[in-house]
Design brief:
By secondary structure, the protein is an alpha/beta fold. It has 2 domains: 1-47 and 57-79 and 89-132 and 191-262 and 421-482, FAD/NAD(P)-binding domain (3-Layer(bba) Sandwich), CATH 3.50.50; 138-189 and 274-354 and 379-413. Helix content is 28%, strand content 21%. It is built from 14 helices and 22 strands. Residues 44-54 have low confidence and may be disordered.
């Protein structure tokens, strides 16, 4: 492996959406890439029986028992000290896209913070959408809001309540339209592991699995990675200009703080305050239940779309969660709850609501003991913004002869949205612990951070596609600079 790394043009740490996007650009340009990841491909023989965790307010995707061992192992590997913050990560090829898929939205120029950067990002959005199948609509009220640089494939919406909502007219304060989501094959949600598997067919690509990078130090020629693989520690030397970090916002920030020896330095960490809700449309009761739906949002609401503080709600069919999950929330005996669910299922819609990351004030730091510390803090206006969005949704749904079911809109634990970003934000003239437009952190030249840590901001819209586009953009620029 040392010889392969020495001969590689680039070394990417992290096999999630960002790492795979950069690797695809580099490998298909004939460059030799070695990718190092702390995990392996997730097996298909994991238990599939649903279970209900103690905190049922987190996303159903996080409650999937197939992923529970990996979530626990990842958290144990980080060994963080947490206060009022729910931390999630997945050490596996594909990263969190194994559980999360990929919502599709483009950041606008204001959210990217720079017109030149926005121009480069447009090219990468298009490049990615030509490779990954993206479903949605380009012509409805949300077409321009999601972004005009994405090639979109139309797909039918089958769930009658969602079709009913799509017939509604948008207003300047409340947009309704098709959600956008990514797929590897038009059926299954996007997973970066599929891209990595395709890359493994190339002689220019090598994947080193089950190898955790737990620290990075600066050397005269570049960087030394402390790698643990197979229970043994090993140092890997990487020349300056060859290293790309894509281990996810949290781990990448920890590695950067360690490399700079920036202990007890408080960094802002952004995430999207979120909540969940359930809608019922009585006119569709007693009808047939459509069972074959994509496991992704099909319809979206955007509240106050012309402002910086817009909020987004994504709507799903009830197939997104286990029936047992829904039954557990119905205040009746299990037998009666099953009968109630059978009755309401054809008219049921589930949703989640995301606020801007500006409503988060989390603090992240690396202690002198090298332990990661995160304190979750909601912004002072978060509750007010949540109530305003909730009120708008209730008014809209009532006008469409629907009901918001009791128990809707409980705030999820801070951090459980998993939209972590902007700890090392990109700036045209970066300051300490900020990055330039190539993802290079001040004081760490030739180390390129390509994941969510360098996003300039975190709006309410999904950020995975923008992370991938930025990773592709940096990879493209690295090729141009060779």
């Amino acid at each position: 492996m040392d010889d392969l790394i020495a001969q590689a043009d680039f070394v990417i740490v992290g096999a999630g959406p960002a790492g795979s996007a950069a690797a695809w650009r580099l490998v298909n340009s004939g460059r030799r890439v070695v990718m190092i990841d702390a995990g392996d491909y997730l097996g298909t023989d994991a238990p599939a029986a649903p279970s209900i965790p103690t905190d049922a307010n987190v996303s159903p995707k996080l409650r999937d028992p197939r992923f529970a061992p990996n979530f626990a192992r990842t958290r144990a590997g980080l060994a963080p000290v947490l206060k009022n913050f729910s931390l999630w990560g997945m050490e596996a090829v594909g990263g969190l896209s194994n559980a999360w898929g990929g919502g599709i939205a483009e950041f606008n120029a204001r959210e990217l913070g720079d017109a030149t950067l926005a121009d480069e990002m447009r090219q990468s959005y298009r490049y990615l959408s030509d490779r990954i199948r993206i479903t949605g609509s380009a012509g409805d009220a949300l077409g321009a809001f999601w972004g005009r640089n994405t090639c979109v494939h139309e797909a039918p919406v089958l769930h009658k309540p969602l079709l009913h909502l799509l017939k509604s007219k948008s207003t300047p304060q409340f947009y309704v339209g098709r959600a956008r989501s990514a797929s590897d094959d038009g059926v299954h949600p996007y997973n970066a592991a599929t891209t990595i598997a395709l890359l493994e067919a190339s002689p220019h690509f090598t994947l080193k699995e089950n190898a955790r990078i737990d620290s990075i130090s600066v050397t005269g020629r570049g960087y030394r990675l402390h790698m643990i693989s197979g229970g043994e520690a090993h140092n890997v030397e990487i020349a300056r200009g060859k290293l790309l970090l894509a281990t996810g916002t949290i781990m990448t920030t920890k590695l950067v703080l360690g490399a700079l020896n920036a202990v007890d330095t408080r960094l802002p960490l952004k995430s999207n305050p979120s909540s969940a809700f359930a809608l019922l449309f009585p006119e569709f009761l007693f009808g047939p239940a459509q069972r074959n739906h994509p496991p992704a949002g099909e319809v979206s609401f955007v509240m106050q779309p012309g402002t910086r503080d817009y909020a987004i709600a994504n709507l799903f069919t009830p197939t997104i969660v286990s029936p047992l999950d829904i039954i557990s929330r119905i205040p009746a005996s299990p037998g009666t709850a099953r009968q109630i669910l059978k009755l309401i299922y054809p008219g049921l819609v589930l949703g989640n609501l995301f606020l801007s990351g500006a409503h988060s004030r989390h603090i992240m730091m690396l202690g002198r003991d090298q332990k990661l510390r995160i304190a979750g803090v909601a912004g002072t206006q978060a509750k007010e913004a949540q109530k305003a969005a909730e009120k708008a949704i209730r008014r809209f749904v009532l006008g469409r002869r629907g009901l918001v079911l009791p128990g809707s809109f409980p705030a999820t634990p801070l951090g459980s949205d998993i939209h972590y970003a902007a700890t090392l934000p990109m700036r045209r003239v970066p300051g300490p612990l900020q990055s330039n437009f190539m993802g290079e952190i001040t004081g760490l030249p030739g180390m390129h951070v390509i994941d969510g840590a360098t996003l300039p901001s975190l709006p309410a819209r999904a950020h995975t596609f923008t992370i991938m586009a930025n990773a592709d953009r940096i990879a493209k620029n690295l090729l141009n600079n060779i």
